[in-house]
Amino acid sequence: MTSTTRPATDPTGPTEGLTGLVRRTVLPDGLRVVTEQMAGVRSASIGVWVNVGSADEDDVLHGCSHFLEHLLFKGTARRSALDISVALDEVGGEFNAFTAKEMTCFHARVLDVDLPLAVDVLGDMLTASLLEPADVDAERDVILDEIAMHDDDPDDVVHDLFAELAWGARTPLGRGIAGTVESIEALTRDQVERFYRTHYRPATTVVAVAGNVDHDAVVELVAAAFEGYGPGGAVEEPVSRLATGARVPVHAGRAHVERPFEQVNLVLGMEGLRRDHPDRFALGALTTALGGGTSSRLFQEVRERRGLAYSVYSFSSHHADSGLVGVGLGCLPERLDGALDVVRAELVKVAEGGLTEEELRRGRGQLRGGLVLGLEDSGSRMSRLGKAELVHERYLPVEEVLSRIESVDVHDVARVAAEVLRGEEILAVVGPGRA
């Protein structure tokens, strides 16, 4: 195995003590283990990050990643579903999982002395789940309920519609994560099991641990718990949708889905930046200053000065092969046109003139504060480690991120705003009336 120690960079100023000792080991089978040792905590957080999500599915397997995430909690040869739940509950641990477009994560947070238990349970789930036919059928109904619940949330619906307009309803990024009623009802146990054996393997998996931990001890625990992890038989190698390095195009579009909600929810946006783009820090400062808090330009113009909406915000999303930037808001139906006019006008102003020094200063401050305050527990540190290793294959110290944020100036923001905010418009609207 190979092992690398990544010590903290020399801290300066207010960032002192932000980064602990980060170490990385690659086991002989390719499984990566990354840890961060944190002083002064009694917790440990572990996440098993798998490089597969809804964007890796075709039409037939739509929703399979999320379905599989549920099924891995249903039991192994050593533990029933109840045993898995009890194991972490009886030590006061927190235990969950999530599926995204480009990754799936199983995570737990426990007292440091209970980390061996958490590693063993997660290893058991990922290496030896039974995927019993009865569990597949039972969990199918749970997921159909989850889809129905998701469909009742206007914010979820409008963001799904926005992605569908931007990338296309039949594309990996344009499809919803949970699948559709039709795709979930059609999935078979054999399809899910083959998906599991194809995508869940050492080379596609990262185990990230942060807290009061010793790296070498963690590596030993992971090596034991994940022994035999992998396909265990003849199965095709997963084919990455990113193999060609192609950029996924973003399309302009407009759609209104009528729903009997009290409010109209909308997302107005355009093509953004991919996750490895060098201007992503400037875009982050831009979107934060534009609509990231109560002092932001959009909040002041849309809500405070005109009272057109209760909630208004801006955002950017980054993927390996594409990105989006946008503004979301919720308002009464009769205020929709007025709110849209104001948002469009402010986007034009920023695209033509950028931000003021004061706006940028506030935006940078919000980014810095959000980053640092978000890293005060072991779970946040673990998430940062896991994502960095899985999607970037490089750990960026907190101090370096803060330095990059601080180096963004008004000229960088003006250039990025001119490039991005002049893009073709995508408008998704959900609620009563017509756009």
Give a verbal description of the structure.
The protein is of the alpha+beta class and 435 residues long. It has 2 domains: 20-225, Metalloenzyme, LuxS/M16 peptidase-like (Cytochrome Bc1 Complex, Chain A, domain 1), CATH 3.30.830.10; 253-430, Cytochrome Bc1 Complex, Chain A, domain 1. 42% of the residues lie in helices and 19% in strands. It has 15 helices and 12 strands. A 7-stranded mixed beta sheet has the order 1-2-3-7-4-6-5, with helices on both faces. Strand 10 and strand 11 (323-331) form a beta hairpin. The radius of gyration is 23 Å and the shape is globular. The N and C termini lie far apart (59 Å). Residues 3-17 have low confidence and may be disordered.
Shape, principal axes of CA atoms:
globular
Query: Strand sequence of the main sheet, in spatial order?
Result: 1-2-3-7-4-6-5
* Mean pLDDT over the residues: 91
> What percent of the residues sit in helical stretches (DSSP H or I)?
40-55%
Range of strand content: 15-25%
Largest sheet: 7 strands, mixed
Instruction: Give the CATH class of the largest domain.
Output: Alpha Beta
Radius of gyration, in angstroms, nearest whole number: 23 Å
The CATH topology annotation of the largest domain reads as Cytochrome Bc1 Complex, Chain A, domain 1
Poorly predicted regions are 3-17
Helix and strand string, N-terminal first?
A: EEEEHHEEHHHHHEHEEHHEEHHHHHE
